[in-house]
Amino acid sequence: MNYPDLHRIYNQPFFNLIKQARAVHEEHWPENEVQLCTLLSIKTGGCSEDCGYCAQSARYTTEVKAEKLMEREQVMERALAARANGSTRFCMGAAWKGVRSGTQKFNQVLDIVRDVSTLGMEVCVTLGELGESEAQQLKEAGVTAYNHNIDTSPEHYPNVVSTHTFDDRLKTIRHAQDAGMSVCCGGILGLGETIEDRLKMLEVLSNFNPHPESVPINALMPIQGTPLGGNEQVDSFSLIRMIATTRIAIPRAKVRLSAGRTNLSQEAQALCFFAGANSIFYGDKLLTAANPRANEDLALLDQLGLSAQRPDPSMAAPDADQNRPAYPECEVVAGAGCGC
To answer: Strand pairing of 122-126 and 145-147?
Structure first.
């Protein structure tokens, strides 16, 4: 979907937008289900990157302390608890620039993935940059989906991160898709971007071929000590508008209501679900930030008549559209270079 169409959709009257998004949601997701995902940081802090929003960067002074990679037994304990608590996807994140085939830490991650993949949940990892070999090995070990957000528009990206490029993000996403993994890819609202930036980010996502399997929409939770620690929090109407526009632009993707949920009332969360969100991070903590408690989430879903989606660990990655290029045209990403 191109920017003029997204601009028109996003800027229509609020109730018209919600009505349109709801119709698209009911056409593609009629089951009234929500995917419950648990996110575990298996390697926290000490990251060499300079992402301006991230408390895990070694360049900033925050309350997050660097920790070594968790042992396989520790991760399995948390994965079993997540499954018992109703989670259908177990996501593991490591604060690294990327991983390299043949290294001890990557081999350790592959062992962890193999064990977690035996539990019947979908397995998602986010490990930074991937090459072709690393992506293939993760797929063979049992990874269902790879998370790698593009965060914001190509134009605004250099204002947020300088240690890698927007094009680097796209290359990792391509490697994950080429290896047969589904891609979980979205962005963050509140990075000092404009509405135009948000829609240009969505333009890039909606032109992926195949589309992302899931699209997290995060609202920045400003962390003291990071460059963006003084940013204002995103208002709920802007978040709901973005969720609704994403649902219309990428109708078959799961739209994940992600970071920032602790700042939303139950009524605002209900509007997010009505507008097209059908996935949440579930549990009392994200990588380093707070999250609503599991019992509160279950109570809200029950009140709304929503149920947990069953896991599909063997699901295939979405099919590419043979009538479109494998990635957005280079001009779509405004000179960032898409690797086409």
So the answer is: parallel
- All domains of the chain in start order, with CATH: 3-312 (3.20.20.70)
The reply to whether 185 belongs to the active site is no
The CA distance from 245 to 9, in Å, is 7
Residue 289's pLDDT band (cuts 50, 70, 90): very low
- CB count within 10 Å of CB 124 equals 25
- Please list, in sequence order, all residues whose beta carbon lies within 8 angstroms of the beta carbon of residue 3, skipping any fewer than 6 positions away: 199, 200, 203
Q: Average pLDDT in the 333-337 region?
A: 34
47 labelled catalytic: yes
Question: Per the residue annotation, which of 37, 89, 91, 261 is the catalytic one?
Answer: 91
Q: Which pLDDT score is estimated for 221?
A: 86
d(CA 115, CA 79): 10
Which one from 89, 169, 241, 256 is the annotated catalytic residue? 256
SS3 state of residue 304: helix
Q: Across residues 11-23, what is the average pLDDT?
A: 98
Q: Could you say which of 37, 169, 174, 184 is catalytic?
A: 184
Is 184 assigned a catalytic role? yes
59 is catalytic: no
Supply 319's token pair.
């099919």
Asked whether the whole model's pTM tops 0.90, one would answer: no
Determine phi and psi for 202, rounding to 5 degrees. Answer: -70, -30
* Burial group, residue 119, by CB count within 10 angstroms (0-12, 13-18, 19+): middle
Angstrom CA distances, 198 to 81, 194, 227, 253, stand at 36, 7, 20, 18
pLDDT value, residue 337: 33
Residue-wise pLDDT for 120-159, tens only, equals: 999 999 999 999 999 999 999 999 999 999 999 999 999 9
Whether pLDDT at 288 is above 90: no
Q: How far is CA 137 from CA 25, 124, 127, 129, 330, in A?
A: 34, 14, 13, 14, 29
CA–CA dist 178, 124 (Å, integer): 16
